Amino acid sequence: MSLAAVLLPLMVVASFDFGVTWDERSRHLYGERIWQYLRGLRPASEFSADTDGNFYGGLFDTLCAAVETFIPADRFVVRHGLNALFGWVGLLYMGRLAGRLFGPWAAVVGLMLGVVSPRYLGESMNNPKDLPFAAMSTAALYYIAALPTSYPYVTLRSAAPLVIALALALSIRVGALIYLGYFGLFVIGCAIARRTLSARQVAATAGRLAAVSVAVLVFGTVAWPWAQQSPLLRPLRALLGFAGYPYGAPMLFAGRVITADALPLSYVPWWFLITTPPVVIAGVALALTLGWTSARRPVALLAGVAAFPMVMAVAMQTTLYDGVRHLLFAYPPLVVLAAGGWASLAAVVRHPVGRRVTLATLIAGLIGTATWEARAYPNEIVYFNGLVGGPRGAFGRYDMDYWGNCLLEAVAWSANLAHDNGRALVISGDPTGIVQQNSYRFSELQFAPPSRRQHHLDVRLARGSTAGVQGLATRTDGLYRVTTHDGAVLCVVVPGPAFDNLGPEVRMPPPGLSAHALLRRVGARGHAYAPTPLSVGSVPSE
Q1: Is the residue at 152 inside a domain?
Q2: Which residues on neighbouring strands pair with residue 492, listed in sequence order?
């Protein structure tokens, strides 16, 4: 617990250096509408349409909208702090679940393996949908594992935290229904194993299952107005609707452009394989081999929980994009399974030298990935392992920064350029919305739509076809590039149409500054820093 306690403030503070993502503005508006609805300022009829936006629960976004009214800071900084809090909860429950299933040593290993999972850690900072759901579904899995394995299986004491966790998960994403199904299967499996099959016991157990299910559906739709209008039916409609979501976004996969609604069978398993750290992969392999001797049931259940959504996504040809972030909730069970694998290895190795070798191997794996995270910060979500040659090997073959997180660093560099030249600059770029939202954190910058051709600087995200991202990365007029430490280009700042108006003697910011340092050299609104006074000339209005 002490390790987890130290981790929480570190994650919240780190989240301030992460950029705005694709979905955050629309999710914030959704949360504001629900916050007003809960206060009686909007009618339920505004949420009655069967649209994609209403198919999501609004808990996280409503919480952000509510907290923003009490904290005078940039809304996206507030959102990212709350996102980090949910990420921390997920890490905490990875450790708790590993400890419950495999012992105290596995609890520490589970927490540490979660921390050195770069993509989970990166998503913790600014993913408003997949990450909060993954965190709460991990908590729900813990409380399922904590249920009594003998009759009556479901007591008020064991059901209360489970209902809360499942309701919170359902309030974020409808995939919580899968975990409600896990709960039912767990109880039924225990009843069959214990042979408690008398008519009275079957009826009592069925009643408890039904009571928990109804409670989850009712409480889980409090911050989901569309589903609240029919809490027993609409969540299921949303689940079925997402499975066949018609979205044909182009993506870069294995060097070719594919569409989100026509994925190859290898898409899901390969993405998980190349974006999972070796120390986690090794732990899972150990669990699937050694774990059977000492913890057969937990290993089998965890493997099934992790594999089921992947198998179903492939079998149902589910629409997926941005890697496998929609299946992020399947990753924590893999981490717990890996912790069990390392614990199993420690249990079967009796010789002191063998134990030391095991511990040294685990520590080396943890340190290796933690070092990568430190060097990649704040762009951990572009992690790829050695199977594809790291980010540099994946560049031009796979989508890299699908969230556009790196754009904040590019915008911060632009603000530093304005600061060092003593004048405000106009910025634009692609994707326009993300560049615009990030620019609002800097008093040194003003944003203009690219169609006006009034901007001094143009920020471009390296996303698209192989030729497109490679062409952007090698542009000879690039002023600044956000790259991984092994050389993969994530985004580029190039001159805009009005750049020549700055004159020939443009002072560039000092080279080698990190994203963290760039943010702190200028007045980043949303932080407790005083804006830098500038000599602002005539700047086009937005």
Answers
A1: yes
A2: 460, 481
